[in-house]
């Protein structure tokens, strides 16, 4: 498989390169970068030297689509829509790490992203790429809208109990903590080391653009309209998302029952690790890997189920899941090139 | 004022020394340490050299009470009860940074702390030392049960809306994030640098011993039984607590109204900083200071009020508030020795 | 004293505000900022609210000089030279935190800083503001060239042994480690959290612009031409500089003798802390304070003296020392407003 | 190959498990742990679940040697000597990550490590396992004394210029900065998060036990007695060592010549990355990988060569190099199971 990465020098781009350089079936064929055009990727990131020494090209997306079998895009949505059209026309495949193809309803996308783009959204042959929920559709789609990092950590954590109606549809509170790499590679005041170190802070409270994505998917799982409260926080670490989710229990259920329910729900999912009662996820337990850890606790005093999930935001939350989807789209084992153990300590 | 600190070499102990060494009205007269007995405090912590060079004594608490006007204790509760009795008998004052004197109902304490101690709890002339709520009582008490770090951040954030019944008493969710100094000075695996760095993890989910303290106080404020869900997390920083609190709104209210309500509630409280709508607290904005920042957001989609508070766990969450209480007990201005600006960056 | 700060929103600027807001003899009268002009400083840095709520003005330096008794400048050197002239003409005082006034020989400055400015450098009534070495001159100067952060940590560490010719003038190796705040407040790729965290890296090896400043002063101390090797490194922390310095011993000397020599040399210097043999400095022991810790070891196997010094780069390495100089220039006790204990942990 | 790891739960032990669990030719057959005996390794470290779920056994080293082809030991040297004898007798192989087998002269070992052990040191068929220098001997040895983390970073950096006598043998200054994982997994005050975070500090100045190992090897390379000055520092990060090394140049040589010399010296060494003039190593560029980056600068003003090397202390500095040696001992490609790209960011 010849792969192209459009927008290769952001954190998700270089994570794709890290994974795909060692993927037995992939050959990195095209890399683009607006900021570092004409430089070697291994000059920009010396740690890639010997593994990937390609030139970063500019924005000749047509060429990229022509010479590659699959395109990964980290571009702004306006450009991704263009690339999407080229891919459809050329019978190639596209995995988009941005929001462009994550939605069922285009107006929903336009409202939350403040976009005026006019396209025939339904003509794109696409799927929401949360692999564990849409595995079969991913295999047969041309375009994958790869999920956001927060939605991945949240939807995987909630799917089993919503599907089985163990919890009620009201008062679902999601409190997520992310490492700073999730804020991207842009040089902004708020991303500076001295601003982030020794600092925990919420941002975009109840306004984050991952909310519509979360609600779209939870509503489909529960087959009714679900609304959530979502607060993202930045904590002083580079990688990792920990989501702590609070739901009202519908009925009496033990912690062991909940454990069994999750085990059953994810019994065929290699990358989902359900923790036994008494153990909780931590971001360090999944760092550098594509795994998602899920644990829980029942607060009997308030009849609340507390679900906790941990992922590496650049792996299962972005580039790892993108490659997981690529594997499916090309008939490969889902964990090909991704079967690595977390880094610890 | 002659002050003694029993258990002076833990993080709250040396923070007391840092504050009191520069307090115009206090004279550090007795320091005890089980682990470092007979050493100079400035040998154990060289940064104190020139500011406090006293010898660390052993456990002669009787002597401490005899020669001091006020005792700060960071001892285990069994020992603190003994010291409390000595203080009452001698007509001195005690500020306890542990849980021993925080409760109205001794059985409640015994249940949550698994204690078999038998004492006449009601004979201690004590008050729960959350200064902003109990200022007048603190002035006239012999013993202050200084609040826990999490409860300080939570009760201050919730008091105005519970008192004014702006929110309902159900579904109060508290998600707190603490720096690692909150886990204390003990050498344990879980506190090692390499275990905590790049790691965000929950602990004691729905089981933390600060829950009874929070519920006792919220129930008194609301004049009815209040239960909360509380999840503490460790995040990779040394100082700071950020609590994100979710409540269902009782009725229609604007963000501006909420802001006005908090401003009014805390209008005479020097150390409480209410942030304007659109601004959120961060731990770095209060680091090294005794301030508590409070901000909020309304999620209209779900009719949820989200309250966020930030404190320095060793200052307003422990030693700073202890000195704030000491000032009141001795008729001094509340912010004496505490009026310092946060360290930034 | 009315004080003005030109360039008030960088890290050294807000550190000056932090110190001067609580300085009994200073009144912050003028603040300028190119980036945040017309905003309240307490809007840009909410932690200053209640302590300093002044409007940030633009570049009306003439007004600043007219209404203030002393100006602190963090401006580029071209602008600082202009301000310097205004200050001389108006009979006011200037403390410059940049390199403009640190040099004896203007050509030396121009060469290392690649500057073409033409001014009558000798007409400025100035002094190199390393307080411990130039205390008397500082008292009587109109302009202070406040030392760089690295030079402060290095010159203080070397002065006693160079003055006493305990070490030879060759092979002086300086290996310095700095926190990231030393790289300033500019949003650059290299200062991003995700680039700096978990990363130790050298930069400007043997080329850093603090070299001429170090060599100028060491040469004056030793009364002969001294050259040094200097390598700065960035380590993942916000504040602090640790300099490890290696010199060949001239003759036999014991560690105790070295200790006595330093004690004697700095016997009247409040902010210098000489550590006993066997103890070494650490950045955390001086964080947030104006102290400089100095310790040493003799490697008898190689006849090498290893000197280690630690400062807070924003305090003794910049704004703290600037206020120390201001105190002297206005006849105040040197430690006025600066007598604070380090923050720990 | 059946492998056993004695002392499997320290940081180098679990790093071995991380590598060997994915090594196509290795089968983890025996794990021992004093502290966690009888527990599953995947209970102690949940991130290993699914990759390695073996029971941790006690100290039946005889059994370990009997059922394994190769033993990795992280035990204290007294125990390692016993295991070494068993291995020799049984015709098996041993890779020791401690100091026991790193020395040519047993008295030298005993002096620096304060040991009274009496053994026939010469009867052990052993080699110092710095792979790049002793590749052929490693292939044919039964016992490998795997190098210390600091010595690996230092000897690799100095070998080319000492061998070629580009630098003089005097005044070799080594200033190393290590992440905290190098201090091990023991719960000690000095390793606590709150003590290490925001702290850079030297330790064991001119006294570290890695000095004899460094000097033994440098002396052999240069064929004369070489002494060095060595100062290790702890910096606030988990992984990584950066060594900055200062030498006096013997004669005129350009930076390009130095670059060519290193390229030539290491032309057959997969894991050594020589950086072009103007680029410097950083710990983040090698994190999680087995690579060693080496860069340099010439300070013409002082005729000094500054060499900088970076490794991951747990990989090339310990467990990675141990597996590199294992590969050689069993006729496998040197980079088998180790050919991974650094984690970034």
Automatic annotation (TrEMBL), chains A, B, C, D:
Annotated keywords: Amino-acid biosynthesis, Arginine biosynthesis, Cytoplasm, NADP, Oxidoreductase
UniProt cross-references to SMART domains, sorted A to Z: Semialdhyde_dh (SM00859)
GO process annotations (BP): L-arginine biosynthetic process
Pathway terms, separated by semicolons: Amino-acid biosynthesis; L-arginine biosynthesis; N(2)-acetyl-L-ornithine from L-glutamate: step 3/4
Designated name of the protein: N-acetyl-gamma-glutamyl-phosphate reductase
NCBIfam families: argC
Domain of life: Bacteria
GO MF annotations in UniProt: N-acetyl-gamma-glutamyl-phosphate reductase activity; NAD binding; NADP+ binding
Gene name in the database record: argC
Source organism (scientific name): Petrotoga sibirica
A GO CC annotation given for this chain: cytoplasm
Name of one Pfam family that matches: Semialdhyde_dh
Domain Semialdehyde dehydrogenase NAD-binding: 2-141
């Amino acid at each position: 498989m010849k792969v192209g990465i459009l927008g290769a020098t952001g954190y998700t781009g270089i994570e794709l390169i890290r994974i795909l350089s060692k993927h037995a079936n992939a050959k990195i064929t095209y890399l683009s970068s607006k900021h570092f055009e004409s430089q070697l990727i291994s000059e920009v990131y010396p740690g890639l030297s010997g593994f990937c020494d390609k030139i970063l090209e500019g924005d000749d997306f047509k060429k990229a689509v022509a010479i590659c079998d699959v395109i990964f895009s980290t571009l702004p949505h306006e450009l991704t829509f263009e690339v999407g059209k080229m891919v459809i026309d050329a019978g190639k495949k596209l995995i988009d790490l941005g929001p462009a193809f994550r939605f069922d309803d285009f107006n929903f996308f336009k409202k939350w992203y403040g976009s005026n783009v006019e396209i025939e959204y339904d003509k794109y042959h696409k799927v929401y790429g949360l692999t564990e929920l849409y595995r079969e559709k991913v295999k047969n789609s041309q375009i994958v809208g790869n999920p956001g990092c927060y939605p991945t950590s949240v939807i995987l954590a909630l799917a089993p109990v919503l599907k089985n109606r163990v919890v009620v549809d009201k008062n679902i509170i999601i409190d997520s903590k992310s490492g700073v790499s999730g804020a991207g590679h842009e040089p902004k005041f708020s991303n500076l080391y001295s601003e982030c170190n020794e600092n925990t802070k919420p941002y975009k409270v109840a306004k984050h653009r991952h909310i519509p994505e979360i609600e779209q998917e939870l509503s489909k799982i529960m087959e009714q309209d679900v609304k959530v409260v979502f607060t993202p926080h930045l904590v002083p670490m580079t990688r990792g998302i920990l989501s702590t989710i609070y739901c009202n229990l519908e009925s009496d259920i033990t912690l062991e029952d909940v454990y069994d329910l999750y085990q059953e729900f994810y019994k065929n999912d290699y990358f989902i690790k359900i923790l036994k009662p008494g153990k909780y996820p931590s971001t360090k337990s999944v760092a550098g890997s594509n795994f998602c850890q899920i644990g829980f606790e029942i607060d009997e005093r308030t009849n609340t189920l507390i679900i906790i999930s941990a992922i590496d935001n650049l792996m299962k939350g972005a580039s790892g899941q993108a490659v997981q989807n690529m594997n499916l789209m090309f008939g490969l084992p889902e964990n090909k090139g991704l079967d690595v153990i977390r880094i610890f300590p």
